[in-house]
Amino acid sequence: MDGSIARPRPLLALGIRLLAAAALATMAMLVKLAGERGVHLIELIFWRQVLAAVLLGAGLTLAGRLALLKTNRLRAHTARSATGLFGMIFTYGAVLLLPLAEATTLSFTAPVFAVLIAMVLFREKIGRYRWAAVAMGFAGVIVVMQPGGGGLAEGVTLAGIAVGLMAPLMVSLISFQIQDLNKTENPWSIVFWFATLSIPVAAIGLPFVIGPHDAATWGIILAMALMGVLAQILLTTSLRFGSAAVILLMDYTALLWASFYGYTVFDRAAPASLWLGAPLIIGAGLLIAWRERQLAKARRVASAASQE
């Protein structure tokens, strides 16, 4: 795959995103499992990034494709790496602080934050449909986290909610950066430079948190890192072949995986409040996706008319 702009292929993008959702949910399960075995958040991030850089670098070298990593946009990669590192801290932190299903559900607010980011950073005008989606999304968060006003759901803390909402905010920022990088860079380059540039930062904190682990724990760390690399490549590739608005629906399948892992691995069934609130959050994302497609279609029609 070269560095040229990829031709939009919606069905391929949907399939890749479906695999990405499964990989992300599996990685989240392994992060939580490692955390319960005493592995620190910073250590998880460090090994995840080291393995990504080593595997991609070695694989491209053996394939004779190392030239794919050449870039003239190191500053853009550095900005994406800084945002991505914060994103990983909040994403992994949410998984460690919240039950899997709740952490996953909160991650679905990313499209809501994307609307707010478009308004604040890009001064985009937000109409009634997208404002309705924003209200619906945050209403869903309230239902999931505070059912009936009787206090927070079991296993949920205010700190967990705060971290869980910061994660999708960072994901939204990262999506804008990746879509920009995809115009000139290939997925391998984007993932490699993200990992490589963030390793030194994570390494600074490593001596303060690293500890001894048994063979089973190291196996979990390795599997987590491999799933993280796979998910990152799949996510980046999906954005290369389709817009975030088009492939959004596939992300919601992660809730099924999270609920399955929560029950089978951590012996915790998703509460009824989650199944009441999650449709509101998912509905908000779908409304935003529909509205984005309508606006994009209107822009294409206007552009075609202006050229006649």
Helix-and-strand structural type: mainly alpha
Overall pLDDT metric: 88
Please tell me what the overall shape is: globular
The number of helical runs is: 12
Low-confidence stretches are 1-5
Q: How much helicity do the residues have?
A: over 70%
Would you count the extended β strands for me?
0
Keywords:
disordered N terminus, single chain, 308 residues, 12 helices
What would you note in describing this structure?
The protein is mainly α and 308 residues long. The protein has one domain. It contains twelve helices and no strands. It has helices spanning 10-36, 41-62, 74-97, 100-107, 110-121, 128-145, 158-181, 187-209, 215-241, 244-251, 254-264, 272-307. α2 packs antiparallel against α8, α3 runs antiparallel to α4 and α6 (128-145) runs antiparallel to α12. The longest helix is centred in the C-terminal third of the chain and has 36 residues, at 272-307. The chain is globular and about 65 Å long.
